[in-house]
Amino acid sequence: MSPVTIYTTGYCPYCHRAKELLERLGIAFDEIDVTDDDERRAWLVERTGRRTVPQIFFGERSIGGYDDLAALVKAGEIDSLVRG
Questions:
Q1: Exposure class string for 34-47: b at 16+ Cβ within 10 A, else e
Q2: Are the beta carbons of 48 and 42 closer than 8 angstroms?
Q3: Angle, alpha carbons 77-81-84 (nearest 5°)
Q4: Could you tell me whether strands 61-64 and 30-33 are parallel, antiparallel, or unpaired per DSSP bridges?
Q5: Do 33 and 40 touch, CB atoms closer than 8 A?
Q6: Residue 68 — pLDDT band, cuts 50, 70, 90?
Q7: Quick one: pLDDT at residue 79?
Q8: Are 44 and 55 in contact (CB under 8 A)?
């Protein structure tokens, strides 16, 4: 199973929705709060090209944010990502 990491901020409603969706699917994840971590936020922008959170990774693969996660679930593609 690919480890799932979600980068969040405490005030982001999409972060809360993404975590709830992962929990509802029974997918364990590590959360990294970048609310006051400018260095980590800069790394995320460099790595993903996006300034927004959440940023969700399955293993080393960035899948994007909440909308991207929901689209993968809807398309039935989430299981293949979880299995790695």
A1: beeeeeebeebeee
A2: no
A3: 145
A4: unpaired
A5: no
A6: very high
A7: 86
A8: yes
- Would you say residue 1 has pLDDT above 70? no
Strand ranges across the sheet with 30-33: 30-33, 4-8, 55-58, 61-64
Count of beta carbons in the 10 Å neighbourhood of residue 17: 16
Q: What single letter denotes the amino acid at residue 22?
A: L
- Kindly list the structural domains of the chain, giving each domain's residue range(s) and its CATH number in brackets, ordered by start: 4-83 (3.40.30.10)
Q: pLDDT tens digits for 19-61?
A: 999 999 999 999 999 999 999 999 999 999 999 999 999 999 9
